[in-house]
Specification:
Pathway: Cofactor biosynthesis; ubiquinone biosynthesis. Helices cover 38% and strands 25% of the residues. The chain is of the alpha/beta class. The chain has one domain: Rossmann fold (3-Layer(aba) Sandwich). Strands 3-2-1-4-5-8-6-7 form an 8-stranded mixed sheet. Helix 4 links the parallel strand 2 and strand 3. Helix 2 packs parallel to helix 3 and helix 5 runs parallel beside helix 6. The longest helix is centred in the N-terminal third of the chain and has 18 residues.
């Protein structure tokens, strides 16, 4: 089986490694949206303390650290050596214990079936050749009643205008070439994959960027960025 890896994408994010934790650098949008993501996860989960959490495609650990600070037992996986090195160092400096591993989620699923209470996979699906493979692996990793959080980008003209022309070329919020429009995922496609993986769609919420205010807000508009919550049936 061909591995579900795009080495060009790994290289692209490896080059950002030194800036993962600079709130005013090239990863600034992640720092802006991270509190929104964490608040949303907490709303859906409740207490995170002692929950086994897997952060898939963790990058430099921005979300991983936030979840660990709320008492979650966090494992975080990525394939970029440089990003993982930054994540490990920052966690140590922050006195946080996070189990960082270089591994695909598919391989992790073979070793840890039905192990996690919560899995987060944020801004990763649009960067891999086979998003459904990621979702299937996450479904395998979840305990019954466990929850999966997926965030990605809708594929339409508005998203292309705002995230590629707006964010990359005009506002320069992210480096040029960060996004590939053809890999954006419509909510209907994502929901179909989730259901094929025998998970139940529980909620979907939009994360809207206001370019003039330079801020994100959660709401019902899923035209561009959105987060989907799925749950594994207790009978599986």
């Amino acid at each position: 089986m061909t591995q579900n890896i795009d080495y060009n994408e790994i290289s692209k994010f490896s080059q950002l490694a030194a800036q993962w934790w600079d709130p005013n650098g090239k990863c600034r949008p992640l720092h802006i949206i991270n509190p929104l993501r964490v608040d949303y996860i907490k709303q859906q989960i409740g207490c995170l303390e002692n929950k086994r959490v897997l952060d898939v495609g963790c990058g430099g650990g921005i979300l991983s650290e936030s979840l660990a600070k709320f008492g979650a037992d966090v494992t975080a996986i990525d394939l970029a050596d440089e990003s993982l090195a930054v994540a490990l160092l920052h966690a140590k400096e922050s006195n946080l214990i996070i189990n960082y591993q270089k591994q695909t989620v598919e391989d992790h699923a073979k070793e840890h079936p039905a192990y996690y209470d919560v899995i987060t996979c944020m801004e990763l699906l649009e960067h891999v050749p086979d998003p459904f493979s990621i979702i299937q692996a996450c479904a395998t990793l979840l305990k019954p009643n466990g929850k999966l959080f997926l965030s990605t980008i809708n594929r339409n003209h508005k998203a292309k205008l705002l995230l590629i022309y707006g964010a990359e070329y005009i506002a320069r919020l992210v480096p040029k070439g960060t996004h590939d429009f053809n890999r954006f995922i419509r909510p209907s496609e994502l929901m179909n994959w989730v259901e094929q993986a025998k998970l139940d769609v529980e909620d979907i919420i939009g994360m809207e960027y206001h370019i003039l205010k330079n801020e994100f807000k959660l709401g019902s508009n899923i035209d561009v960025n959105y987060i989907l919550t799925a749950q594994k049936n207790s009978n599986l």
